[in-house]
Design brief:
Helix content: 10-25%
Number of domains: 1
Strand content: over 45%
Distance between the termini: 81 Å
Number of helices: 1
Number of strands: 16
Largest sheet: 8 strands, mixed
Radius of gyration: 30 Å
Shape: elongated
Length: about 230
């Protein structure tokens, strides 16, 4: 005798709903994983950099990068920017690099472009081509300087002045600029200085060396802001 098995339509519908629900849950879970993978921050290839101007007025930038990073320097004629492109891999990958740069019409612009993380940084310098006399004092206030990124949002400013130069530090809130005021002074012994500076909330660091020159007989000429340094970072 054959036994007839009755299958309730309601049971069939419930089974179909269960399969559909599992399919949707699997799709959502896969999608969430994919989105989580996409949200993982990519490694920043630029670790730190140091801008320097030596006693001859020549500029250079030393920079440390992540492991297995290549650097390519290009000249953007339209924006007059020296572009440093960082990418992962390559036969010429090194842990650190150095580039020498020259002012063009008293201006130097350098841009870092991180192809891995998409994070960029730029350095703009307004200065004049100064050739210092042999032995040190050429009549200019500032001898040399360097600005180094510490990797934590702060920067180290180190500089040396010539003989008989008085130095004063100020922060100008109106233009969000660190000012180093330089002028002639008597009995000045300190020549080397170092300061730790913080980047503003707008991700900009501005430094002006303010040269206060005396025209004689107590007359002070308008202060000249050179060099001027602007660093912008993502």
């Amino acid at each position: 005798m054959k036994t007839k098995v009755k299958i309730n339509n309601k049971t069939i519908i419930m089974k179909k709903l269960s399969v559909a629900l599992l399919t949707v849950m699997f799709a959502l879970s896969f999608g969430s994983c994919s989105e989580a993978e996409l949200d993982i921050p990519q490694e920043k290839l630029l670790k730190s950099f140091e801008l320097n101007r030596d006693a001859n007025g020549a500029y250079s930038i030393d920079y440390d990068v992540a492991d297995n990073t290549s650097a390519t320097t290009l000249r953007n004629v339209n924006s007059k920017t020296n572009e440093i492109h960082l990418s992962k891999g390559g036969n010429d990958a090194k842990p650190s690099y150095k580039n020498d740069f020259s002012l063009e019409n008293d201006l130097l612009k350098v841009g870092f472009f991180d192809d891995n993380s998409g994070k960029n940084a730029s350095i703009t310098i307004v200065d004049e081509n100064i050739i210092f006399a042999k032995g040190g004092d050429s009549g200019e206030f500032l001898k040399d300087y360097g600005v180094k990124s510490n990797g934590d949002g702060t920067y180290q400013l180190d500089f040396e002045v010539n003989n008989g130069v008085k130095t004063a530090f100020e922060y100008n809130k109106d233009i969000e600029t660190y000012e180093v005021h330089l002028s002639r002074g008597n009995n000045i012994s300190e020549k080397k200085f170092s300061r730790t500076l913080e980047m503003s909330d707008s991700n900009e660091l501005r430094i002006d060396f303010v040269n206060n020159k005396n025209a004689g007989k107590g007359t002070v000429l308008e202060a000249e802001r050179k060099p001027r340094i602007i660093i912008i970072s993502d």
